Amino acid sequence: MKARIYVTLKKGVLDPQGKAVVGALHSMSFNEVKDLRIGKYMEVELDASSKETEEVRLREMCEKLLANTVIENYRIEMD
Amino acid sequence: MKFGIIVFPGSNCDHDCYHAVKHVFGCEAEYVWHKETALAGFDCVILPGGFSYGDYLRTGAIARSSPVMSEVVAFAKRGGLVLGICNGFQILAEAGLLPGVLMRNRALKFICAPAHLRVENNSTVFTSAYSAGQVIDVPIAHADGNYFADADTLKRLEDGGRVVFRYSTVDGKVTIDANPNGSLSNIAAIVNEAGNVMGTMPHPERACEQALGSTGGRGVFESILKGFAGT
Q: Is the pLDDT of residue B231 over 80?
């Protein structure tokens, strides 16, 4: 079973890295870029049979380690 | 008084801490490898600076699940003194012993520089040797020292006098220009609600001897020793 996890910065949390990239894009004449925020993408391979049970466990992994929920949101996609 | 200095893979200020408590202040000190599961006999535990686990995933995120950390949490809950410096602060935040998180510096750069700090609260066990409002000179060395917490948490910290050091100018003004890393409200160090756990991004252990450029960090250790002598 495979899962994909997207960890993104919450609204209102400053993303200096994203801001720097916007600045670079503007200097390359991509002036239509209004905002850009950088997050993390994780591919997880699992030895699991039940999608439902595993989704609960993936959530737990995100809460405990993969995301810091003070500043980050996460989204899980499963095959 | 006996200090335990936790050593994670990637800690690199453990020797600085050991030198400060053992040789400058003449206390007992011992290194504690992160695989240890007991902290018996220690009066104060220090989580030193460095790059535990290469800062993989997020700073402090993997170190917080090291075997010793559940004992550090239990030690703190029993009222033991825990001091997290730099990466140690990041680990304490990830472990939930201190609120908030240390994010990438505003300018995205690693900053190694002297910093002026204003002592905001001198009634904690970590700051009692300072006078209120005193400005001290303590170096910083980090890429992720930009303190962030939600508005409720920040209010609780401020109302409870739990912000202990703030980045300031040499004459004690808390300004945007004096803020090296974008930290919320110029926060450089905080304590937990019970007051026995402190996290500081600046390095007091590197500012205990004039030969190293400043003695502004001595007060942290003098406060701890003073508190211990009084118990």
A: no
Residues in Cβ contact with B210 at an 8 Å cutoff, skipping those fewer than 6 apart: none
* Residues facing residue B3 across a β-bridge: B29, B44
CATH (residue range B2-229): 3.40.50.880
Note the pLDDT of residue A49. Answer: 87
| ipTM confidence | 0.83
Contact A71 B106 (CB under 8 A): no
Is position B193 annotated as part of the catalytic site?
A: no
Encode pLDDT of B44-58 as tens digits.
999 999 999 999 999
- What does the pLDDT read at residue B42? 97
Q: Decide which of 3.30.1280.10, 1.10.940.10, 3.10.129.10, 3.40.50.1360 is the CATH code for A2-78.
A: 3.30.1280.10
**What does the pLDDT read at residue A79?**
84
Tokens coding A66 = 């993969």
Token output for B14: 């453990």
- Which residues does chain B have within 8 Å of residue A39's beta carbon, measured at their own beta carbons? none
Query: Is residue B63 packed enough to be buried (19+ CB in 10 Å), middle (13-18) or exposed (0-12)?
Result: buried
Mean pLDDT of B162-186: 98
Q: How far is CA B76 from CA B32, B40, B223, in A?
A: 16, 12, 18
